[in-house]
Each structure stands twice: as C-alpha cells, then as structure tokens.
Design brief:
α8 runs parallel beside α18 and α10 packs across α18. Strands 1-15-16-19-14-22-20-21 form an 8-stranded mixed beta sheet. The chain has a 5-stranded parallel beta sheet with strand order 8-7-6-12-24, with helices on one face. A 4-stranded antiparallel beta sheet has the order 3-4-2-5. It is built from 19 helices and 24 strands. It is an alpha+beta fold and 696 residues long.
C-alpha cells in the first residue's frame, strides 16, 4: 500500500498560525503519582523491531530442497568467534578461529585442512550482549573451489542440509558491481558493443538532441540521480545552493571559531548534504542485501570509501572520509559532462499548463534575487534536504499537494565515551583504545513505546501512543550546530572515522503528529515546519541567550525538573552551553514522555542517568515534516508533471543510503521516461520501494 493511499493529500492553501502560544500554567512534577502504562514487552505489526520481524520471517520461511549441492555457493551465518580469539574489528579475512567455527558448521573434523581461499567474509559484527562477547560472522563458501582444493570435502557437502537462518544455498551469486559498471554492462548488452565510451553515449542520444535535466541539491539523492542520468545520456545540470566541500569546510570553521553563520553554506547546506558533517552512517532498514543498496555501497567504495563498509555490520564513514569521497564523486560527474553550479539557489519553478519547464536560479549570496536567470529543462529532479524550508513555501505557491508526516523532536544527550564503553562492555572496555583497539567504540540504540492518558494533548479525546527512541547515535563524536538561521537553534551529532572523541552523544526524541500541531494552533500542510521553528528552535535560541549558545541541563536535573546551576559537565559543543530549564522547553506531555523513557533507558543501560550526562536543546530535524505525493513507478509528482521529488526533503528517505537509493531509482525512472534506456534497469538492481514511512 502506498503512502498516498494511507493519507488524504491536502491541497496547499494559506497557512494559519499563531506565534503566541500559552501552555497551561499547571506543570505537574515528574515525581507526582500517576497511572502510566509503558509497553515495552510484546510488540506487534509496525512496532516490531527489525530483528523481531526477521525472526518472524524466518519462522514462516519454508526450507527449499537443494537439488544440486555442488552448484552455486553456501552461506554460513551466525558463526561466533570469542573476542579474545579474534584478530579484531579491523580484520576481515578468514582467521584460524573462524575456520574452526566453519568446520563445526560443516561437521568437518580438521579445520586446518579447509582452504581459506574457498571462503569469503560477507558480514562481521560485534555482539557484547552475552556473557562471552563475540564477533559474529556470515561467510560465503564457494563449493566448486572448495572441492577442487580439498576433494575430501565432497562427502561432507553431499550431507550438508540447509537450516533456516544458519545455512543457506544459492544457485547464483547476486549481480555485483558499482553503479557505473552496472550501467556500462547494461549498455553493452543492449548495444552489443565490446567497448563503451564514457560520457553517456547511447543509441537514443545519437538520434536526437540530448534531453536536459536539472537536479536540485547535491546530497546523496541528487548525486546518485545525476550519476544515473548522465551515464545514460542526459545533459545534466546539478544545482547546489551551498559550496563545494573545500569551501564549505572553511565556512563551517568560521562558524565554529568566529560564530559567523553563512546562510547557504553550513552544516546543512553544501556538497554532500547534511550527512557530510555527521557520523556518515551507512546503516539502513530498506534491505542491506538488496541489489539497490549493494549498488550504492559499491559505488561509494568506487569513489574512495574503504571496502570494510561492505562487510561491517554497522558501517560508517565519518566526515574525514566523506570529504575526499565527495571530491572524487564530483570529478567523475564533471568528466561525464555534468555541469555543477555551486552557490546557486533555485528560487522558483517555471510552470506552464501544469508542467515544469525549468527553474529560476540566482546567486545564493544575493538575498534580493534581482540577478536571477531562467533555465529551461525537460525534467527537474527535486533532491533538496528537509532544512530547505524556503523550497517548501515556493512549492506551496504552485499549489503542490503535501501530505503532513509524523516526525520526532527532543534533546541530544552526551556522556563520556568511557562511561558508555563501561556500560556496554564492562571489563572489555579497555579494548576500545579510542577507536584503535580490538573492539568497536561502544554505541547504543534504545526505544520505548509509551501509551498513557498523561501523554495526550489537550485536544485529544483518547490516549496518545508515542515512541521515544535514540536517534543518530554518535560514539566518539561531538555535538554540532545545524541552524540555518541566526534566530533559530538546532543541533545534531557528528564524528570522524576513528570515533576517537572523549564523548558519546545521541538524540533522544519523541514522535509528534498533526494532533500536536493542532493543539498549539498550527494548521495546514506546513504545520510541522511551523511547529519545529516557532515552538522549539526559536525558543531554544532564546533560552541559550543568543550567539548560538546551547541551553543545557544535567540528565538527573531534567528528571527532577530542577535547574542545574552554573556547574555543568564538560560538553563537546564548541560554541558554548548555558544552564537552562529544558523541562520547560516542550509541552508537558512531550517532557513527561522524555522523562519516563529516560528512566526506563537507565534500566537497560545502568548508569545512563548520571550526573555526567548532559542534555542539549534542541533536536527537531530528525526527518521531513511533509511528504510530496508522487507516482510509485515513475517517481513523478502527482501535482506537477516534469517534477521528480526525491530523498529526505521530499519525505522518502531517512539517511545516506536510503536517500542515495531513492535518487538512483528516480534517475532510472526519469531516464526511461526520456527514452534514454529500454526496459526496466531496476530489475538488474532489485528495486527497493521507499514510498512508505521513513526508515533509518
């Protein structure tokens, strides 16, 4: 079922809002007696964790009889190697200890006789939950190579039977390769040519003038859409309001050191999007082993990412690795003919008879928009991030239909990384060694589902179900400013590849919906945006006293609704923190949901509630507050022909990988519509639909 079938699209009209909001004077103490139901045991439907869904799927999956056990390859999963027997997190080969576990799975008596060349590690993760921490492996076994190198394995393979979730047989390995190779191979198969020149040649482009496409935004979705379209023969112009990573880094340095905020080049705007100066997480919930995700991951490796991201159970890059990767990506796009315009802002769409004809752009440093130019295109891919709120208002002026979407707001908590290491690893914490040790820097992921009358808004007639969860957890990271306006205050987390900082931070957020917006008189399709800005970001800026100082409060004091005083724990936030009553920042029902959830998190992570834990305000930009309805197959807007909304800003992604996949799929669909390719190239990749709720 598509998103458009779940919600009734709202036609955009005048947004009603009331900037003066008064909350009820009575603000009950957290310690007051109340009836509260915290649902954290049995989960059903969409509330199941991904691991629970996977277990359920495995139970329902029937074991298929293997006709020829010596064809294809076998996949051995859940091979656990005790941490002290493993070379460590950075070793991705076949160790002697892993060979022992493989021999057990195959029931082969002598592990040393197994040829390591026949095995490939496809996934490695660290599990410290049990008494004996282990590295958990998934290994592919090439049967043909194994039997050739060790003929005595014949009998053991013949007796091997598939076991759900542990031993699986595959006839043929999935199509591998980065996106560029896949497109070139596809064109070879279509044209029957032995060689393909770089630059997007194809038989359609030679017959007529190349179609012209504008891609607005150079985040993951914009970059991958540009790559696909250019490789298939379109004349692509990539328009980015911010600067290239080199200049963007200097602008961010000026912000951190001298408090100079460049409105169009900052932590949110610029080459690579908001994810460039973040943790660079590559985890996704849209199918880690799908063809689309694998194509994206291998393309990142092609442009400079380490190959370990293909194997690591929780892959991440870090800002220091993302910057050279993006530089390589840009150079390739330019080599195949993409015209990249940095520092150019799209001010308007050129529309005629319900179709987009092009865009009106101007110098992003010119706020008057007097020196604008009109550019004509055959299609426009809108790949902006969800901080581009001016774009939402521009779309509103053209009558684009929006669907309001739930998102989450809250605070960012920071602890000493040594404390998180100790909580998660106990005695093994000494093996972290600031990201250079045997085990990865400890992280966490917590979630609680809350259901109670006290969490309902004043206008609710029924109890409101909410979830509170950690978001964008950055081990060994720092808290950074993501404001795009000096009158607003919003923060996020980031880290470098080694995650060697002395702090660990994570957002703790509570889901909010249109009920919350209406309760404070925000209505219309952009009510969520007004809710973010007027309710929280401007109020946080006032609480901090201006100059990008962040209001902060000890975790223990937040639970007790008590002012922390002037003595606060050290913070990684470089622009300064100021003691404030963060429990007064939110409406009472959101504050109480956060308080109860944090108390429950402490039961899962003993020590989470401590005097060293510091809460920072405010985190509001967890995902887009709207979704732009589009066709599920063509990716074209349902309101305006020729417009292709993609990525996080359009409400169809939630992270680097899912945004890249969405841009890639939209690029293929637009290329097909422009007759740049035949058939459905997505069948080669394994299409991953992201038309439902945002997944992280």
């Amino acid at each position: 079922m598509t998103m458009t079938s779940k919600f009734v699209p709202l036609h955009i009209g005048h947004t009603k809002s009331n900037p003066i909001i008064q909350y009820p004077n009575h603000r009950p103490s957290f310690l007051e007696h109340r009836t509260l139901r915290i649902r954290c045991a049995k989960r059903t439907g969409k509330q199941r964790y991904p691991s629970e869904k996977k277990k359920l799927k495995l139970k329902q999956k029937a074991i298929v009889e293997v006709k020829n056990k010596f064809e294809g390859f076998w996949r051995l999963s859940k091979l656990g190697v005790p941490v002290y027997n493993d070379p460590g997190k950075d070793f991705l080969g076949i160790s002697d200890a892993l060979l022992q576990e493989i021999a057990k799975a195959l029931e082969f008596p002598v592990a040393s006789m197994l040829p390591t060349e026949a095995f490939t590690v496809v996934r490695k993760s660290f599990d410290a939950r049990k008494k004996e921490p282990k590295f958990v492996y998934t290994v592919d076994m090439d049967v043909g190579k194994l039997v050739c190198l060790e003929p005595r394995m014949w009998d053991f393979i013949s007796r091997l039977e598939p076991t759900v979730g542990l031993i699986e047989h595959f006839l043929n390995e999935k199509a591998s390769g980065d996106l560029i190779s896949i497109i070139h191979d596809y064109r070879k198969s279509i044209d029957g040519q032995s060689s393909i020149q770089t630059g997007g040649w194809n038989k359609f482009a030679t017959a007529k003038k190349k179609p012209r496409v504008a891609v607005v935004g150079s985040g993951p979705s914009g970059l991958f859409a540009s790559l696909v379209l250019a490789e298939l023969g379109a004349e692509v112009t990539l328009i980015e309001r911010g600067q290239a990573v080199e200049q963007r880094g200097r602008d961010i340095g000026a912000l951190v050191v001298r408090r100079i905020l460049q409105l169009e080049s900052n932590f949110c705007f610029g080459e690579g999007g908001a994810g460039t100066w973040s943790d660079g997480k590559l985890v996704t919930r849209i199918g880690r082993n799908s063809g689309s995700v694998l194509a994206v991951m291998k393309t990142l490796v092609h442009f400079g990412a380490p190959e370990c991201i293909l194997v690591d159970g929780k892959p991440h890059l870090g800002t220091d690795r993302l910057i050279p990767l993006l530089r390589n990506f840009r150079q390739h796009l330019q080599q195949i003919g993409v015209n990249i315009k940095f520092g150019r802002r799209v001010d308007d769409l050129l529309v005629k008879n319900g179709s987009v004809l092009g865009v009106q752009v101007s110098d992003s440093r010119d706020r008057t928009k007097l020196n604008s130019e009109r550019l004509i295109y055959d299609g426009v891919v809108l790949a902006v991030g969800h901080s581009a709120r001016d774009v939402y208002h521009m779309l509103l002026s053209h009558g684009i239909d929006f669907v309001p979407k739930d998102f989450a707001v809250g605070l960012r908590v920071e602890h000493p990384q040594e404390l998180i290491n100790s909580i998660q690893y106990s005695k093994l914490a000494t093996e972290v060694c600031n990201g250079r040790g045997k085990v990865p820097v400890a992280d966490y992921k917590v979630v609680k589902y809350l259901d109670g009358d006290k969490f309902a808004t004043a206008s609710d007639s029924e109890a409101t179900k909410r979830s509170c969860y950690s978001f964008c957890m950055c081990p060994g990271g720092q808290v950074v400013l993501t404001s795009t306006d000096p009158t607003e205050l919003c923060i996020n987390g980031m880290s470098f590849s080694r995650r060697a900082s002395r702090w660990a931070n994570s957002a703790l957020v509570v889901t909010v919906s249109s009920k919350d917006f209406k309760a404070v008189n925000f209505h219309g399709p952009l009510a969520g945006v007004e809710f973010q800005v007027r309710e929280f970001e401007r109020k946080a800026a006032t609480m901090g006293g201006g100059n990008f100082v962040v209001p902060a409060q000890r975790v223990t004091d937040f639970l007790e609704q008590r002012f922390s005083g002037t003595s606060l724990p050290p913070s990684s936030y470089r622009l300064g923190v100021k003691s404030a009553n963060l429990h007064e920042l939110f409406p009472a029902h959101i504050t109480e949901a956060l308080q109860h959830s944090i108390s429950m998190f402490d039961k899962e992570l003993p020590g989470f509630v401590s005097k060293d834990g510091l809460l920072h305000g405010v985190e509001t930009r967890t995902s887009s507050p709207i979704q732009i309805p589009r066709d599920i197959d063509t990716y074209e807007s349902l309101s305006l022909k020729g417009l292709y909304p993609v990525g996080e800003g359009a409400g169809y992604a939630g992270g680097i990988v899912s945004a890249a996949v969405d841009g890639m799929c939209a690029g293929f669909s637009l290329a097909k519509n422009l007759e740049l390719c035949e058939g459905d190239l997505l069948s080669v990749l394994g299409k991953t639909h992201t038309t439902g709720f945002v997944k992280y």
